[in-house]
């Protein structure tokens, strides 16, 4: 996969491994030895536990991190709900405010917004479920052109899976710093506080917020022990902290899809050391090891799953994150693009760069999106069908310079008012342009001339 060139290298250091128990200290000796919460933590720090699961969750599911910080996270004023007109986000997923429709939808590229920072550049496109019950997911776009100031943000609703399409995010989290660029993804777990600055100017991208559980690697089954995303390629930050005697900060909380804020007189980024398995991480999508058919037929897109947010039913996801990177096609006597399809799952697709091989008509563009909801029929547009049906089937590289992705969910997804109307990006003739031109090729052998 081509490596995107940036104006500066990644200046930060990372620990490697997915769901590993990591530990890091920015000051030698700041991590207690043999005890999580000694009577007096080293250097006068406060011990604080960050729990991402119930205390009694099974050991293989339990997510928690101990942090050693200058002041506890609880040291802030009361949260106050932000006035709706003070931020132009639309974050509610209340059932009566979402549009559940069977139509196939496609959006033109979403706009950049040079006047918004990270918090005020979040827009809900679609969602399902209820964060108060820890059920479901939300799909958002972000577009920002300004740094956050002395501010921090966290979501109490779920884990943010961030997929950049344009621009670089410098993410300062409580547990360390992450530089995030297109062709990479980042997961910020529920409750972790962070701020976003923009070293290369305006940014734009996609987010899948998982209200239920946490993202994990998919099981590989008959594939074996390797391929797809390998655990060693995930990167977690190392401890880094700000030492400010007194500094006024504003803390934003996304709580039941409503924005609250509170004041505090110290930095949120004062964690000197930490250890545990609940932390933000990033992954370079260029390291994904694709697999596919080397005989015939087109496999299910689940072979491209990077991360999954499972439901209580084995093999059925609240959210799968699937990518379609550059890859070779060699299957014989096979219609190689994705086949025509009706799915019990909802499929939201985005395009980071290039062209998607199943949509050649030009309507699916980088920074745009599409949604094929539960049982909404979809598949290649007419041009892709005609081309693939008549192509010479020799080994072929597809997707060079391209990267498409999909958020797939077992839930019926409702579209927000912003996503359907206010953003003014919905293509009204998506269906007509994609599938109406399909021609009848059937020759009935029993029909008399």
From TrEMBL:
SUPFAM superfamilies per record:
RmlC-like cupins
Please give one Gene Ontology molecular function term for this protein: homogentisate 1,2-dioxygenase activity
Q: Name one GO cellular component term.
A: cytoplasm
Per its UniProt record, the required cofactor names are: Fe cation
For this protein, the Enzyme Commission number is: 1.13.11.5
Annotated Homogentisate 1,2-dioxygenase N-terminal domain residues: 13-285
Task: From the Swiss-Prot or TrEMBL record, give the protein name.
Answer: homogentisate 1,2-dioxygenase
Provenance organism? Penicillium bovifimosum
